[in-house]
Automatic annotation (TrEMBL):
Residues 28-174 form the Uracil-DNA glycosylase-like domain. Its EC number is 3.2.2.27. Belongs to the uracil-DNA glycosylase (UDG) superfamily. Type 4 (UDGa) family. It catalyses: Hydrolyzes single-stranded DNA or mismatched double-stranded DNA and polynucleotides, releasing free uracil. PANTHER family: TYPE-4 URACIL-DNA GLYCOSYLASE, TYPE-5 URACIL-DNA GLYCOSYLASE. Keywords: 4Fe-4S, DNA damage, DNA repair, Hydrolase, Iron, Iron-sulfur, Metal-binding. It is an enzyme of class 3 (hydrolase). The lineage of its organism: Bacteria, Bacillati, Bacillota, Tissierellia, Tissierellales. This is Type-4 uracil-DNA glycosylase.
Length: 187
């Protein structure tokens, strides 16, 4: 079993798919290494690629606010993505790119050992829950897979594009907080 630091180093050298060619930095993920809850986005955007950190652009600022609204700090949770290198022009990661990179996510999950996974957006949910996942019908509903409680919700960038989705997102985040409190005090 690798440590998180060893895995981060391996990822920083990765050239297993074409995305490495366009990256400035890999974006491994950050936060509490023993987090009970992990937020998983799609892949780095422009600012994340420049800084090597997840969710630091506009969508990230909104994610911070949403976490704040349910009294969670970034330092308390772990935040990462399906792919660790920025896809060109922020396109969705291709299936083959996600398939390769999700192996790193699996290792991260094994090491950190969270109980709750939050899928931010359809790309994340399709890779983690089911390939035919649809945000419009399937978000906001807990999925139990093995030991994990998985909540698929909107990607914060989708909320920036369409304010009307914020009400649903708020319901999802309240439910996330409830489950988090339940789990935190169970052990
Ligand atoms: N969007 C994502 O899916 N992940 C990030 O890290 C930033 C924006």
């Amino acid at each position: 079993m690798y440590t998180l630091e060893e895995l981060e180093y391996i990822v920083s050298k990765c050239n297993r798919c074409e995305l490495y060619k366009g990256r400035t930095n890999t974006v491994f993920g950050e936060g509490n290494k023993q987090a009970k809850i992990m937020f998983i986005g799609e892949g780095p955007g422009y600012y994340e690629d420049k800084m090597g950190r997840p969710f630091v652009g506009k969508a990230g600022q909104l994610l911070d606010k949403m976490l704040e609204a349910i009294a969670l700090k970034r330092e308390e949770v772990y935040i990462t993505n399906i792919v660790k290198c920025r896809p060109p022009n922020n396109r969705n990661p291709l299936e083959k790119e996600s398939k390769i990179c999700i192996e790193y996510l699996r290792w991260q999950v094994k090491i950190i050992d969270p109980d709750i996974l939050v899928c931010l957006g359809a790309v994340s949910a399709r890779n983690i829950i089911s390939s035919d996942f649809k945000v419009t019908t399937d978000r906001g509903i807990w999925v139990k897979k093995g030991k994990f409680y998985i909540m698929p919700t909107y990607h914060p960038a989708a909320l920036l594009r369409d304010e009307s989705k914020k009400r649903g997102a708020w319901e999802d985040f309240k439910s996330i907080k409830e489950k988090y409190m339940e789990i935190k005090y169970m052990y």
